[in-house]
Every structure is written in structure tokens, then in C-alpha cells.
Amino acid sequence: MTQSHLPFPVPVPNATIPFWRTNPHPLDTHRSTASLPQKTDILIIGAGYAGISTAYHLITSSSSSPPPSIVLLEAREICSGATGRNGGHLRPSVPFPELIEKYGIAACLEIVLFEIAHMDAMKSLIEKEGIVCDFTLTGGHTVTKDPATVEFMKDVLGRYIAECPDLAEDYTVVVGEEAEKQSGVKGVIGDWQHEVAHLWPYKLFAGLLEICVKRGVNLQTNTAVLKSGGRDEEGYWGFETERGDVRAKKVVFATNGYTAGLLPEYKDVIAPRKALCTHIVVKPSAEDGKVKRMGNGWDSTYIIEPPLGGFDYLIQRPDGGVVVGGANRTYKEDGSGLGDWDDSSMIKPAEGYFEGYLERYFSTFKKGEDEETVDMAWTGIQGHTPDSLPHIGAVPGKEGQFIIAGFNGHGMPVIHLSSKGLVEMIVEGKKFEETRIPKLYEATKERLGVKFVL
Ligand SMILES: Cc1cc2nc3c(=O)[nH]c(=O)nc-3n(C[C@H](O)[C@H](O)[C@H](O)COP(=O)(O)OP(=O)(O)OC[C@H]3O[C@@H](n4cnc5c(N)ncnc54)[C@H](O)[C@@H]3O)c2cc1C
Hints:
One of its GO terms (cellular component) is cytoplasm. The protein is α/β, with parallel strands linked by helices. The chain has helices at about 50-60, 95-105, 105-130, 145-165, 165-170, 175-185, 200-215, 355-360, 415-430; strands at about 40-45, 70-75, 90, 135-145, 170-175, 190-200, 220, 225-230, 235-240, 245-255, 270-280, 300-305, 310-315, 320-325, 370-385, 390-395, 400-405. The two termini are about 25 Å apart. Flavin-adenine dinucleotide (FAD) binds near residues 81, 86, 275, 277 and 381.
């Protein structure tokens, strides 16, 4: 397999093991055929959330007979990228004032509503396909101790509610002492509350992939694409892989933080960023045998202290465990993380950050009474963009090539419906603006000029 010292991002061997991937699905290292197909109608590169969702929408929406042939190539195991390493938090967010100033409230509101729409869409998908993945709808708390951040929360929310009054039913900002009381987080004075969900991402996307493979998608794991080639006279794009060449009429780059490895025009446009997550085991109380929970509900989730130089995100799992990630306030200032695609090692400055975390932040946790142990820690590679927006649609100037990448560590409430829209472009030939994907997500030539300075 290709190595991390190369000048462009590629998935590295011996990645850290995330909690979510401790019990691999039978498809984890699956190859549908012993040899690599040499030719296909549609090639998808990357078997994470974006690649699998694209395959799923392709097979469930295609009415053509025979259906198009689809090959899905994955450099490592399925969901071994960000999808199998994330925080499991499905939390619709809102674009911040810089984006409102730059693009206008209407374009930003489109994103807000699109993300909220993922709550129902994901729930329906999971129910329809009967996938057991611990999907839990619950309340989310975004909490802060900083008065300026409270004002910021009220201001941002106020702007969206002024434009779309129905949002007042979905979002509230609780302030003062009540914020600590309702969230259970020590010393906070602001608590932005709304509906969120959490789930086991690996189980969901492995389950969807199983449906795809049963319906004919040719999955080839441990098959890194090494190079994109040109287009031949029959209109097929050529790709060099570790196991031979593949030609495809249409190709979808679902390679997130690694995209620039195959599409050089995305160098510093979508940059890899290394991030950290942990799993905490909470010992049941000796008194009643119950596991301590935080906040006003068994399942509530948290974003802790944004945006003061970074934040942490936390979910409480149905089995009593906690998945918490972030710690970027420990390393963000020195810029480490951005430009790093090595998920085989941890992040040095963040070492020890999550030890004693629950006791440090939550009033329900009492030193000496409760016990918490960080039993697993891992890293993962996100795809970041300087404008904080993903790139979705046709790759500029390359007919038949499509991209769905650059989710800025926030793909859960974005990718499912984006991939649905992308498939409408691929199969029905729709223009980007004819899909429901927010305008600001469009992959354009202009946005290729918006680069990080690394
Ligand atoms: C630590 C961490 C915590 C996160 N927490 C959250 C969260 O709580 N909520 C949330 O909304 N989002 C979160 N995210 C972000 C979320 O996981 C991503 O936005 C989402 O999973 C992106 O999916 P993807 O399919 O685009 O990318 P990936 O899952 O990274 O998939 C890309 C795939 O492409 C493959 N690939 C790359 N290059 C090649 C190549 N040359 N040949 C073949 N295959 C290739 C990779 O191996 C990989 O499997 C987190 C991310 C991380 C890393």
C-alpha cells in the first residue's frame, strides 16, 4: 500500500483502531470478484459514507434496464476512513455570521434546512432498510461559559428565526443558571438546545453497503487507486490501481480528505486534517448498579465550549459508554492537524486530555464515587475546505467526473441527501441547481481558487 511520506494524501497502513470497528462486518475486506473489473459504467472511489450512499442511491433510483455496472474501490477496509472513526453525532448545525455576511441569509438558511432535513431522512432510511445501528433521537446541548459566545449564539439563532420563524420550534438558547441546571455541565451560562441523534456509523454504512453488494455493486477493498489517467476515444476515464487498470464512463470521487491525491486541482482546496476521538467506559454505581448519565436525559449529546479555540463533542451511548472527541484546543494553535493524513498515530499534544473528562465537566460526576476509564483512543482524517463548505457536483472541466468531498468534520447531516442529489445529476443528467443540494456546496471552477496556505 502507498505510504504517508508521499507528497499527497493517501490512506496509510496500520491505522489506529476505533471503537466502532472493533467487530468488523463480513464485508470489511470483501472483494466481489477475485479480479478487478477492467471496465465499468460507474466507478466510485472511496467506501465511506459518501461512496456508499452514492452507490445506494444509484442502485435504488436506477430504472434503466440493464442497470449500470458499478465498481466501488476502497484503499483499505470499508468505512476505514473518517466514517468508521467519527463521533457518531448527527447534529444539524448552522452557518456562522461570516458566511451570512459573505453569501446572504437565504443561501445559509438553505443549508440550515437541508441539515435539519437529514434527521427525518436518516431515520426513515434506517427504518426502511431495517438496519440496527443504535440510532437514537435525543436532545443536543451546545454549552459555553463565555458571555460573548452566549451573545453570539443568540445573534446567530435570531437571524435565522427572523428569516424562518418555524425554526423557533426547533432551537432555543437557555441562559444563566438554568443552562448549567439543564445541561449538567459545570459553570456554563449558555446552552443552545435542539434535536439531534447519535448512532453507530460503521453499522449503518456497512448495512447499506450490504444491500448494494447484494444488488450487484462490485466492491473491491484493499485496492488503492494510484493515479487518474486521461479519457480514451470511447469516452472512458482510465485509472491505475494497485491491482491493475480500470476504465469508467463516469467516476465519483468520494475520497474526502484524500481527494488531492487523485485530483491535483484540489490540493489545498480540500486539505486532510487529523482529528481525535475516544471511548470512555463508565463504571455502574455501587449503590444502584446504574451508569451515571449527564444532563436532563439519558441520551443527550454535547458540544462543549465552542468556539473558544476548538470544542469537544460527546455522545452517551445506549450501552452506558461515552464517545467523546475534539481536544483541538490542545493543538489547534500550532496548526498541527491540518495537512496531516496519518491516522496510524495519535496526536501528541492531546495525550491525556480525556482522562477524568466527565468528572471535570459534569456536575453529576463525583470524584471518589464515580469511575471513568478511557479504554480506546483513535485518530481519523477529515477533509477541510477554507470556506467550510463541501464540494459536490461535476468536477470542473472534466466531463463524466463527479466529486462529493470536503465535509469539514461534519458530514453526518450533509452527505445522505447530497449523494441523492448527486445521483440525480449522474443518472438523470440534472443540472446542479435542479437538485435539492444547497447552492453553496456546488463544486465550481471558482472555488478551486479558494485554497489553504499550508
Ligand atoms: C475523529 C473524527 C470525528 C468526527 N466526528 C463527527 C461527528 O460526530 N459528526 C459528524 O457529522 N461528522 C464527524 N466527523 C466527520 C465525518 O466522519 C465525515 O464527514 C464523513 O465520515 C465523511 O465521509 P466520506 O465518505 O466523505 O469520507 P471517508 O469516510 O474518509 O471516506 C473516504 C474513503 O476514501 C478512501 N480513499 C481515499 N483515497 C483513496 C484512493 N486513492 N483509492 C481508494 N480509496 C481511497 C479512504 O480509504 C476512505 O475510506 C468526524 C471525523 C473524524 C475523523
